[in-house]
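Obj.: predict assembly geometry.
Materials: sequence records (below).
Method: joint structure prediction, all chains together.
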Amino acid sequence: MGTGTPISDVGEFGLVERIAAALAGQPAGGVEVGIGDDAAVVRLPGDGRAVVSTDMLVEGRHFRRDWSTGADVGARAAAQNLIDIAVMGARGTTLVVALGLPADLPVEWVTDLYAGMREEAGAQGAVIVGGDLVRADRVVISVTALGVLTGEAAVRRSGAQPGDVVAVAGRLGWAAAGLSILSRGFRTPRVLVDAHRRPQPPYAAAAAAAEAGATAMIDVSDGLVADLRHVAIASGVAVELDPSRAVVDEPVASAAAAFNADPLVWVLTGGEDHAVAATFPAGATLPEGFTVVGEVRDPAEVDVLDGPGITVGGRVPRSTGGHDHFAG
Amino acid sequence: MGTGTPISDVGEFGLVERIAAALAGQPAGGVEVGIGDDAAVVRLPGDGRAVVSTDMLVEGRHFRRDWSTGADVGARAAAQNLIDIAVMGARGTTLVVALGLPADLPVEWVTDLYAGMREEAGAQGAVIVGGDLVRADRVVISVTALGVLTGEAAVRRSGAQPGDVVAVAGRLGWAAAGLSILSRGFRTPRVLVDAHRRPQPPYAAAAAAAEAGATAMIDVSDGLVADLRHVAIASGVAVELDPSRAVVDEPVASAAAAFNADPLVWVLTGGEDHAVAATFPAGATLPEGFTVVGEVRDPAEVDVLDGPGITVGGRVPRSTGGHDHFAG
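Observations (raw structure tokens):
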């Protein structure tokens, strides 16, 4: 089927770089924010701007039908797109859905999927419009969200400044703990399993952060360390994360104790809660729900770094823990 | 994995009906055209409107990597979305892409995919913005196109009126002939095989039709008979298709003769050329590229019909030849 370099050799980020290169030099007129942020911002002729995000969920990789209902999966597909829009300082208005479906899939699973999607979207004031249905061997769900900016400018990953504080809102480690529980064949504690099935992204906190002047914001989908590293690189700064300030919620701590696991691994590397990380100017009043977990510095002043990057407890993490979706 | 009615029992159109029911009663404020047309039209706060279309292509079902290059598949993914936008009387501005990719897929195939997508999109003045990359067992390509209306109102499927003429622009049967050739293990005639690999939708004709006051328009993706039936049902009219007026282009006629096949089957049921069918008021000057293939009548005046529907050569077709993507 053709020769060349397997994707697994270059990894996800290598692939993204090559795609960016393949798209370099496109007319920039209509695009305000392109590849490399949580969502794109496109200018529409006339006046408007639209914020656009897309996510694909593949059965067996992102969900299992014996672990999650159709409604759970629908709610999650909606949530992860809507929070991508929210962290840009925008409000999701419309979800467009394309589905790949096996012919023997129960119709009820599909209507349940839409019910879950509608519930999550409706709570955020967004509506679902038609899309495409195709046959596939496994369920594939591709959701594209459209949104509108609530302020003048989008909040990007690239705006963090030395001196800013780094803060987090939303759950950390809950969904990762829930997945570990399911993977071991358990179904409780229910609160963690449910957190895996249906994330509860902190939409209101994201909107409040944009309002409060967040300099950068990101949806924590690869894990806190990996995503703060994305902010550091995009902003050309050092992010110093103090893991002792990251809140380990009680259910996460208990589950970790029961499994003889380190809860900080879930908290620092789990992405499926879709928490929100943001940077704020020093002295800013943080919106409700945010906890300070670190600060932004000039990389030249951080001995252990050669350039923009992240430190965790003063050290360069061996790995950011972020998923490379194409590694082995 | 749950019980219920398999999708194959209700078919694609049964599934669409149930999805529409699951979404009934959503706030309609932001949606001008929802499920059931080639693309949706959504209102954006302030002023703007966006036209949105999405299509998913699954390896093995919509393309084979030994028959099409990455660039072919990319061009096709872009084309089928851009023509969906064009038949609404809109202009595509932005493509958003989500990809499911096997880890052993060559990186070059992916960059080639983007090159093809860029080429097709660029020719129509549209740009590609970032999206999502996930791992999958087979290549899955989900493209969402955004566009802007060029006139005041979208051209819908539902506007055909008794007395209108029915006309078609673009190739009919070429891609279907090309697929038959490839399926039989041949690679020539090249012009037909290429038509399967990269459709050439009549973008300019679609734009001209909207400008000329087309009352209804549709992208021929299920086949001419099936798609004109969609127009008939949505408009509540009878469409009388005269197959003797449908142009059988020379390469299609030759291939059919060589295979001892009926070229009209390809012409009337092949969808992958993404031709455009439109209805125009009687007496309207048809834009360049359109050929009249029938007329619109009041169903009450058509003896063989009980209600809105299509006749082909004066008869009700046994089957519309449209793909039910979930049948057997």
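Conclusions so far: Chain A touches chain B through 91 residues (CB under 8 Å).
To do: check interface contacts against the pulldown list.
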